[in-house]
Amino acid sequence: MSSSDIVVFEPATFYAVTARDNNPDCENYEETFEVPQFYSNAGTNCYVQCGRCGQRMEILTATVLDPQPVIS
Question: What is the pTM of this model?
Answer without folding.
Answer: 0.85
